[in-house]
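Changelog entry: the UPF0187-domain-containing protein record was regenerated in this release. Current contents:
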Amino acid sequence: MVANNPLFHGRWTAKRFQATVINDIYPEVLFFSAVATMVTLVTQLTTTKLAIPSGLLTVLGTVLGLVISFRTSSAYERYQDGRKMWTNISTTTRNLGQILWIHVPSAREDKGAQRAQTILASTIEKKSIINLLQAFPVAVKHFLRGEQGVYYEDLYPLISFLPRYANGIPNRDDQLPMWHSRDVDAEEVGAERSGRHERDETYVEKDNNGASRSSSRSAGKKVRKDFFDPEAALPDVESDVPLRPARNPPKSDIYDLIPLLRFFRFVIRRILRRANPGGYRRKQRLPLVESNVPLEITLFLSNYTAWLMRAGLLQPALATAVTANLGVLQDTLSNLERISNTPLPFAYQAHLRMSLWLYLLFLPFQIVESFKYITIPGTAFASFLLLGFLEIGQEIENPFQYDLNDLDLDHFCLDIQRQLHEITAHTNPDPVDFIFVAHNQPFAPADKRNAQELVALGDNYVSPDNGARPGMDSIRRTMVRSWKQVDIVTRKSY
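Regenerated structure tokens:
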């Protein structure tokens, strides 16, 4: 989530409640409410009194409140750290894009390691490298979500031109690590296409021979008025491997709405497995070679920087800035990986949850004598409050998945894409072409003559009030008068 309320933004459905923790805690709330109901009815309607002394209620409640507060605060700190890291990626890619697009010269000539090259070829070269910059946050997004490989509709078109083999010759044994994620058997690929990574049929088109081929996007895709397809802005590159969707959140089912059914599903599967042991054997799969795609993209960017320095196309100060920014990208990737792969210790989470359960279990026994029938709603509210905070901490602990309360990584990637394209739309004009024009009034508000009129005066510039000698004295006087006018006009009297 970035700014929109996931519960009320867009068309409302019952699934919107998944943005809250109600679906996760209501079975426990109902259980403790049932316990409170039993204790209250037995105490009020029979001669048996289930009330116990409440001496430990205040002490244990205070301790649990502090521990749960620490748990939630630590989880929210990780959430905020994740957001800061993505801000670093956005800022760094923007800085690198500006340096490479503006400061790397397009006019090339034979000089040392530099080779003669047309302006068009140089522009293609720089734009391709900036496409790699655009691919970096996309690769980070898939990496954090545990989606290995490069064959995704929003990633593959940006990096498909990179080398795939160590010796440049197609050989499976010489395949570079980035492309090794496709090293799975045909059965697994088929399972992915029909299962979790199933692609819409409109993404598959036919070639001239009638055989299906995979494309990063299809020109024959169905178009709806409310259809959101940001991948349509990417290159249309053919792939010999089916491309997985750019966004593939897990599908919600009845078990998400009624968690208690998961227990019955587990029992039924156990029974069926015992009845037919051979039918539930796991399929043997070839080992999947995982690679760190974001890291490999930074290696290509570093290699390009080194080539620029060898060719003398990048000044030492700018080369230092580029190297520093690449270091920031790698450091940010490490921090994001730390947040994603370092949950709170299981012993801490289990002990905290068991302590809370025991506290809520004995709570109605301690307050039934004072609250009587109010014990039931009081216990329900206390369990809803405490269990809710505990579940919130667990949900936002890893903010990089598809939950409605997680960070909107797709929004960040698309925002970076827009910024990089805005940078490459800059034409690098000479200052003379846009400064000395009729629309520019550099000395306003004291002197509202345009730049063409001022340049025509040459060194005989005279301020409008004629209060100083022609030349720099008049220019300085105009600057002071501009400051005074701005200071007076922009200050508001309260």
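Residues 182-216, 218-225 have pLDDT under 50 and may be disordered.
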